[in-house]
Amino acid sequence: MNLKGSLLIFIGPPCCGKGTISRLCVEKLGFTQLSTGNLCRHHIEIGSDIGKEIDFALKSGKLISNELITEMVKAWLEVNASNCTSVILDGYPRTVPQARDFYDFLSSSDEMNSVKIIHFQVSEECLMKRACGRLVCKNSECQQVYSIEGKMAPKIEMICDICSGQLIKRLDDTLSTVEDRIKTYYKHESGLLNCFNELGMFTFSLAAENDVDVVFANLKKIIGA
Ligand SMILES: [Zn+2]
Question: Which residue range forms the structural domain that includes residue 56?
Answer without folding.
Answer: 7-123+183-220
